[in-house]
Amino acid sequence: MLNKIMKRQVGFMFIDLPELIKEKLQKLFQLIPNDVKLNSRGDKVDEPTQAFHSTLIGELPTKKKENINKLLDSYFKENNIKKFKARISSYSISKVERITKAKVYCLSLSLVLKSCQEDKNIVDIRKDCAKLTEGSIFYDENSFHISICYFDTNGMNLIESALKENNSELSQLLHEICDTEFEIEELVTKFNNKHYSFRLQ
């Protein structure tokens, strides 16, 4: 008898990064050997890839996607929600606590988004989405990041060794990317691999 694995269906809203930033992040990703890379669930895959983004609102129940997108659509139509600045402040390697079947680590970049504390429209959008989902939502104004690559213990040792060498290509590119500032022009929700875009003014 086949065992059916029931997955909780959720979506999220993320920040769509500029293409120039994505190109640099892809270059970073390619500097890490494929044989140590894992996907975001901690599994080995034949051709590792990574979708670069920063989650703005997480844990959005798919069953409420129509209500959520309707709420967001009205916000963006009724309010002059302006483009805002983001800055990559630092990088880190940390253990991924949500994955328990094996030791999985992630190289990530910290993102500073002042508008998420200062822009009333952005703050209200996040708070109202939290109410709509009865609080089952990731909501933290001070913690944003971009995941670059997931890897095993061998990968962590390899990357930490490369970062200790200031002249390594990985170390130089990471330092070049850190403190980069760019403008956010679009926010996107994703449910069941379907994307809904919201342009900023």
Short description:
With 201 residues, the chain is α+β, with helices and mostly antiparallel strands. It has 6 helices and 9 strands, in the order E-H-E-E-H-E-E-H-H-E-H-H-E-E-E.
Descriptive notes:
It contains six helices and nine strands. With 201 residues, it is an alpha+beta fold. The longest helix is centred in the middle third of the chain and has 14 residues, at 65-78. Mean pLDDT is 85; it is low at 1-6. α1 (19-30) packs antiparallel against α6 and α2 (65-78) packs antiparallel against α4 (120-132). The radius of gyration is 18 Å and the shape is globular. A five-stranded antiparallel sheet has the order 2-6-5-4-7. Strands 3-1-8-9 form a four-stranded antiparallel sheet, covered by helices on one side.
Structural class: alpha+beta
Rg, rounded, reads 18 Å
In what range is the share of β-strand residues?
25-35%
Overall morphology: globular
Mean pLDDT: 85
Run of helices and strands:
EHEEHEEHHEHHEEE
User: Total helix count?
Assistant: 6
Low-confidence stretches: 1-6
Estimate the helix proportion, in percent: 25-40%
Distance between the termini: 54 Å
Count of extended strands: 9
Q: Kindly report the spatial arrangement of strands forming the biggest sheet.
A: 2-6-5-4-7
**Main beta sheet strand tally, sense and closure:** 5 strands, antiparallel
